[in-house]
Amino acid sequence: MKKAFRIKKNDDFQAVFKKGRSVANRQFVIYILKKDKQENFRIGLSVSKKIGNAVKRNQIKRYIRQAFHELEDQVKNGNDYVIIARKPAAEMDYHTVKKSLEHVLKLGKILKRVNG
């Protein structure tokens, strides 16, 4: 995932938390903030220390990035997304993470309809 697609600054994270809306399922919470002047979407990841050691947390982040990479054609542009992983995400493999993310993105009406 390119650097342009990532949220890095704390101010950006805080803006999404304060002004954005949120959708959630058991594994993930996603905060969504509409950005009119932005042509692509950006994601920020938050995986708490409660979820596991550094290796586990980084693995979950890699899974989420890869899932977004595969879904990027369907994700609506012009938004900032902050994804917070919840405890059950620690026991999931990549395919379950992707399925769960798709579910929560559909709940938030973030995925575009794909013909076919």
TrEMBL record:
Task: Spell out the GO cellular component terms annotated for this protein, sorted alphabetically and separated by semicolons.
Answer: ribonuclease P complex
| Flavoprotein found in the keyword field | no
Q: Which reaction does it catalyse?
A: Endonucleolytic cleavage of RNA, removing 5'-extranucleotides from tRNA precursor
Q: Which Gene3D superfamilies match?
A: 3.30.230.10
| Pfam families to which the protein is assigned, alphabetical | Ribonuclease_P (PF00825)
Q: Which GO terms describe its molecular function?
A: 3'-tRNA processing endoribonuclease activity; ribonuclease P activity; tRNA binding
Q: Does the keyword RNA-binding apply?
A: yes
Keyword annotations from UniProtKB, A to Z:
Endonuclease, Hydrolase, Nuclease, RNA-binding, tRNA processing
For this protein, the Enzyme Commission number is 3.1.26.5
Q: Which family does it belong to?
A: Belongs to the RnpA family.
Q: Briefly state the protein's biological role.
A: RNaseP catalyzes the removal of the 5'-leader sequence from pre-tRNA to produce the mature 5'-terminus. It can also cleave other RNA substrates such as 4.5S RNA. The protein component plays an auxiliary but essential role in vivo by binding to the 5'-leader sequence and broadening the substrate specificity of the ribozyme.
Do you know which HAMAP family this protein is assigned to?
Answer: RNase_P
Assembly and partners are described as:
Consists of a catalytic RNA component (M1 or rnpB) and a protein subunit.
Q: What is this protein called?
A: Ribonuclease P protein component
- Tell me the organism: Lederbergia citrea
Q: Quick one: which gene encodes this?
A: rnpA
